[in-house]
Amino acid sequence: MAIELARRRFLLSALAVPIVSCRNTHQDLSAFTEEEPAHLLSAVQVGDPHSAPQLLSGWHRIEADAWRWTARKFSVALRPPPGSPMLGAVLQFRFTLPEIVIRLLASVTLSASLPNLQLLSKTYDHIGDALYAASIAPGVLVGDSVRVDFLLDKAILPSQADGRELGVIAHSVSLETK
Fold it and tell me: What is the C-alpha separation between 76 and 16, in angstroms, rounded?
Protein backbone atom coordinates (compact mmCIF):
# COMPACT_ATOMS: atom_id res chain seq x y z
CA MET A 1 0.00 0.00 0.00
CA ALA A 2 2.80 2.44 0.92
CA ILE A 3 4.77 1.50 -2.20
CA GLU A 4 1.68 2.03 -4.38
CA LEU A 5 1.06 5.43 -2.78
CA ALA A 6 4.69 6.48 -3.30
CA ARG A 7 4.51 5.36 -6.94
CA ARG A 8 1.35 7.41 -7.53
CA ARG A 9 2.89 10.50 -5.93
CA PHE A 10 6.02 10.12 -8.09
CA LEU A 11 3.89 9.82 -11.24
CA LEU A 12 1.83 12.85 -10.25
CA SER A 13 4.94 14.93 -9.58
CA ALA A 14 6.45 13.83 -12.92
CA LEU A 15 3.26 14.89 -14.70
CA ALA A 16 3.18 18.22 -12.87
CA VAL A 17 6.68 19.34 -13.99
CA PRO A 18 5.78 19.93 -17.66
CA ILE A 19 2.49 21.55 -16.64
CA VAL A 20 4.20 24.03 -14.32
CA SER A 21 6.60 25.07 -17.07
CA CYS A 22 3.75 25.83 -19.51
CA ARG A 23 2.64 29.41 -20.03
CA ASN A 24 -1.01 28.57 -19.39
CA THR A 25 -1.25 28.43 -15.59
CA HIS A 26 -4.99 27.59 -15.62
CA GLN A 27 -4.77 24.00 -16.78
CA ASP A 28 -7.31 21.53 -15.45
CA LEU A 29 -5.49 19.05 -13.22
CA SER A 30 -8.61 17.26 -11.97
CA ALA A 31 -7.75 14.12 -13.93
CA PHE A 32 -4.51 13.87 -11.96
CA THR A 33 -5.83 14.24 -8.43
CA GLU A 34 -5.64 11.38 -5.99
CA GLU A 35 -8.73 10.62 -3.95
CA GLU A 36 -8.57 9.55 -0.35
CA PRO A 37 -9.12 5.82 0.19
CA ALA A 38 -12.52 4.85 1.55
CA HIS A 39 -12.60 4.73 5.36
CA LEU A 40 -14.66 2.07 7.07
CA LEU A 41 -17.28 3.18 9.54
CA SER A 42 -18.33 1.49 12.77
CA ALA A 43 -21.99 2.22 11.99
CA VAL A 44 -23.58 1.81 8.57
CA GLN A 45 -26.98 3.04 7.40
CA VAL A 46 -27.69 0.53 4.63
CA GLY A 47 -29.95 2.97 2.77
CA ASP A 48 -27.03 5.35 2.27
CA PRO A 49 -25.40 4.77 -1.14
CA HIS A 50 -22.00 5.59 0.41
CA SER A 51 -22.32 2.47 2.58
CA ALA A 52 -22.20 0.12 -0.44
CA PRO A 53 -18.44 -0.65 -0.19
CA GLN A 54 -18.97 -2.01 3.33
CA LEU A 55 -21.88 -4.24 2.30
CA LEU A 56 -19.96 -7.29 1.15
CA SER A 57 -22.61 -9.77 0.03
CA GLY A 58 -26.29 -10.64 0.31
CA TRP A 59 -27.69 -7.09 0.08
CA HIS A 60 -30.27 -6.01 -2.51
CA ARG A 61 -30.66 -2.51 -3.97
CA ILE A 62 -31.72 0.48 -1.88
CA GLU A 63 -35.48 0.96 -1.66
CA ALA A 64 -37.40 4.09 -0.65
CA ASP A 65 -34.01 5.83 -0.18
CA ALA A 66 -33.88 4.21 3.26
CA TRP A 67 -33.46 0.44 3.43
CA ARG A 68 -32.49 -2.78 1.63
CA TRP A 69 -33.76 -6.33 1.61
CA THR A 70 -31.20 -8.91 2.64
CA ALA A 71 -30.77 -12.42 1.29
CA ARG A 72 -30.67 -15.38 3.69
CA LYS A 73 -26.88 -14.92 4.05
CA PHE A 74 -25.40 -11.41 4.16
CA SER A 75 -22.12 -9.84 5.24
CA VAL A 76 -20.76 -6.44 6.20
CA ALA A 77 -17.32 -4.99 6.98
CA LEU A 78 -17.14 -2.68 9.99
CA ARG A 79 -14.42 -0.73 11.74
CA PRO A 80 -14.02 -1.73 15.38
CA PRO A 81 -15.04 1.27 17.49
CA PRO A 82 -12.49 3.12 19.64
CA GLY A 83 -11.72 1.29 22.86
CA SER A 84 -13.31 -1.98 21.78
CA PRO A 85 -10.09 -4.06 21.96
CA MET A 86 -9.92 -3.26 25.69
CA LEU A 87 -13.62 -2.87 26.56
CA GLY A 88 -15.42 -5.13 24.11
CA ALA A 89 -18.31 -4.11 21.90
CA VAL A 90 -21.93 -4.71 21.03
CA LEU A 91 -23.00 -5.67 17.52
CA GLN A 92 -26.39 -4.16 16.64
CA PHE A 93 -28.45 -4.91 13.54
CA ARG A 94 -31.69 -2.94 13.14
CA PHE A 95 -34.23 -4.39 10.76
CA THR A 96 -37.93 -4.86 10.05
CA LEU A 97 -39.86 -8.09 9.75
CA PRO A 98 -42.53 -7.34 7.17
CA GLU A 99 -45.92 -9.02 7.20
CA ILE A 100 -45.04 -11.14 4.13
CA VAL A 101 -42.10 -12.78 5.94
CA ILE A 102 -44.19 -13.72 8.98
CA ARG A 103 -47.11 -14.87 6.79
CA LEU A 104 -44.93 -17.13 4.63
CA LEU A 105 -42.28 -18.24 7.15
CA ALA A 106 -43.97 -17.78 10.58
CA SER A 107 -40.60 -16.87 12.15
CA VAL A 108 -36.92 -16.44 11.30
CA THR A 109 -33.87 -17.18 13.39
CA LEU A 110 -30.93 -14.81 12.91
CA SER A 111 -27.37 -15.58 13.87
CA ALA A 112 -24.12 -13.70 13.35
CA SER A 113 -20.47 -14.61 13.33
CA LEU A 114 -17.07 -12.94 13.24
CA PRO A 115 -13.94 -14.73 12.07
CA ASN A 116 -13.47 -17.61 14.52
CA LEU A 117 -16.38 -16.52 16.73
CA GLN A 118 -20.02 -17.60 16.56
CA LEU A 119 -22.40 -15.10 18.19
CA LEU A 120 -25.82 -15.87 19.62
CA SER A 121 -28.92 -16.78 17.59
CA LYS A 122 -32.29 -15.17 18.15
CA THR A 123 -35.73 -16.04 16.79
CA TYR A 124 -38.15 -13.33 15.62
CA ASP A 125 -41.85 -14.00 15.07
CA HIS A 126 -43.56 -10.59 15.20
CA ILE A 127 -44.21 -8.12 12.41
CA GLY A 128 -42.40 -4.80 12.81
CA ASP A 129 -39.09 -3.27 13.81
CA ALA A 130 -36.55 -5.54 15.48
CA LEU A 131 -33.06 -5.37 16.95
CA TYR A 132 -30.43 -8.08 16.99
CA ALA A 133 -27.77 -7.32 19.61
CA ALA A 134 -24.81 -9.46 20.56
CA SER A 135 -22.01 -8.78 23.02
CA ILE A 136 -18.39 -9.16 21.89
CA ALA A 137 -15.75 -9.73 24.55
CA PRO A 138 -12.64 -7.56 24.97
CA GLY A 139 -9.69 -8.66 22.84
CA VAL A 140 -11.79 -9.98 19.97
CA LEU A 141 -11.92 -6.86 17.80
CA VAL A 142 -8.36 -6.10 16.73
CA GLY A 143 -7.18 -4.52 13.52
CA ASP A 144 -8.74 -1.97 11.19
CA SER A 145 -11.80 -3.97 10.14
CA VAL A 146 -13.92 -6.96 10.98
CA ARG A 147 -16.19 -9.00 8.74
CA VAL A 148 -19.59 -9.81 10.21
CA ASP A 149 -21.54 -12.65 8.59
CA PHE A 150 -25.27 -12.91 9.24
CA LEU A 151 -27.39 -15.99 8.58
CA LEU A 152 -31.16 -16.44 8.60
CA ASP A 153 -32.44 -20.00 9.03
CA LYS A 154 -34.85 -19.40 6.13
CA ALA A 155 -35.89 -16.79 3.60
CA ILE A 156 -38.53 -16.22 0.95
CA LEU A 157 -37.44 -18.04 -2.18
CA PRO A 158 -37.18 -16.21 -5.50
CA SER A 159 -40.42 -16.18 -7.48
CA GLN A 160 -41.59 -15.14 -10.93
CA ALA A 161 -42.88 -11.88 -9.44
CA ASP A 162 -39.59 -11.15 -7.63
CA GLY A 163 -36.46 -13.04 -8.61
CA ARG A 164 -34.67 -12.21 -5.36
CA GLU A 165 -34.25 -14.32 -2.25
CA LEU A 166 -35.74 -12.13 0.52
CA GLY A 167 -34.71 -12.27 4.17
CA VAL A 168 -35.45 -9.16 6.23
CA ILE A 169 -35.60 -5.42 5.60
CA ALA A 170 -32.33 -3.96 6.88
CA HIS A 171 -31.85 -0.44 8.24
CA SER A 172 -28.46 -0.31 9.99
CA VAL A 173 -25.56 -2.34 11.34
CA SER A 174 -23.13 -1.07 13.96
CA LEU A 175 -20.43 -1.95 16.42
CA GLU A 176 -20.50 0.13 19.60
CA THR A 177 -18.01 0.13 22.45
CA LYS A 178 -19.40 -1.35 25.67
Answer: 39
